[in-house]
Amino acid sequence: MLNDEKRGIEEAYTSAMSSSDLSVEADRLGDADVIIAAGWSQMRVGGAVMRLHTEYDSGERPRLLGAEYFLPAGKSTKEQRKLAGRQANEFNRKQLGLFMERLKSLPDVRDQLALQLLRWGAEEATAKAVEIIGWWLHQRCPVCNGTKFQVVEGTGRQNGKACPECHGTGKSVTPHESLGGRAVEWMDHCRARNRAQIGLRVHGRQVVEAKRAGAVPRADGSMPRIFLRKPKGVAGCAK
Questions:
Q1: Rounded CA separation 143/141 (Å)
Q2: ∠ at Cα 195 (182, 9), nearest 5°?
Q3: 0.70 exceeded by pTM
Q4: Which of 130, 158, 187, 199 is least buried, going by the fewest C-beta atoms within 10 A?
Q5: How far apart are CA 157 and CA 82, in angstroms?
Q6: Mean of the per-residue pLDDT values for the chain?
């Protein structure tokens, strides 16, 4: 289906949208499975995005380098510092690519983002999705290392001036310009939807538990906060 080595996600999606056979079979992945995958809700995508970010944060990070590692010995020129920034970006992109291959949550997020890019008319959607996800996971500017300010050469101290590479944002340039920015906003929106849904579920359970305990609603209609009971059949944490 989406991970079929014989055809990319763009070809699979295009084929599925024009297919006359949308039957679902237990022992074979067909065009209907592609349509189903393309119909993920934003909250479900948000859940996959949250898992990916958690997996990235909890894993052993790749070794990423700042622009100073690519500068020549001694005093450098403005052009040399710009070149060093580009070299650091390229090195870090490759390192992130190797690291991301080990993330179990990546395929779901990559496929869903690629499908969204296709809906927006993008070409080479899968490759662009991987690059955008890599930036989303690690946005730090390689020149100022995310500090937003220039560093005085040879001292490690900031001079109070905005970093010339990121212009004081602390972030590297979003890949694929406006398309990349739109994709990042979509991912953040999906994650926010998922977080909101989790909050509603937790709040709803708190209300039920409060009513069971005989709690009386406050004047504003809210219920007093209580500790949630452990579900039946769930063993306690080992001490």
A1: 6
A2: 45
A3: no
A4: 199
A5: 19
A6: 75
